[in-house]
Amino acid sequence: MLMSKFAEKEVEKDSLVNRLNDLEKNIVPSLKKALNDISLEKDAAVVAKEDTLAQLRSMKKRLREAEEEQYRAEEDSASLRAQLNTLQQQVMSNSYSGYAVGTSSEQTLAMEKEIQDLQAQLKQESLLRQQEQQKLAEESLLRQQDQQRLAEEQSRTTSLAVEKREMEEKIAALTKKSSEEASEFAARKAFSMVTHLTNFMFVNFIRK
After folding, report:
1. Residue spans of alpha helices (H) in the chain
2. Which residues form the domain of 71?
3. Could you tell me the keywords of this UniProt record (predicted)?
């Protein structure tokens, strides 16, 4: 009976040893890798956040400059339109008066050319404003994508941190349980050996 229990304890001991070996070979390296990944992900998230904030500050500055430039362009556009209207009225007036005011053909051609130049300038200003607005829209989209990527990185970092904590708790529990079971087994084994030795000595003493 005693030998049977001893054999069971030996099997239990081997099982504990195997569990400890598995812990050291698989779980601990996995934990170290997870910790390293967390550190790398955290560093990447910090860098991404700093880059995003820097881009955001730059975009705000450029947006203010673009708004100021657009305001000036609108003022210039209004002024050019006023000049264009004035020149067109002058051309129409000269045409209807039959050059009564003494306007020469060269002056008329010059005014028509100036009108064309003003129209081309207005068109160019409008195109530049459209391009700037499109560029700002694209940069805003990129900023949103960066913010989304940062949020995903932070979520992943949090998930890894939770996984790390769970693994640490699991390792601590396994180590504690294994240590307690090993200590209990060693104590029982020692007690069993002492009892067996005592019985053996007692039997020999009786025989003598």
Report:
1. 2-22, 28-96, 105-207
2. 2-207
3. Coiled coil
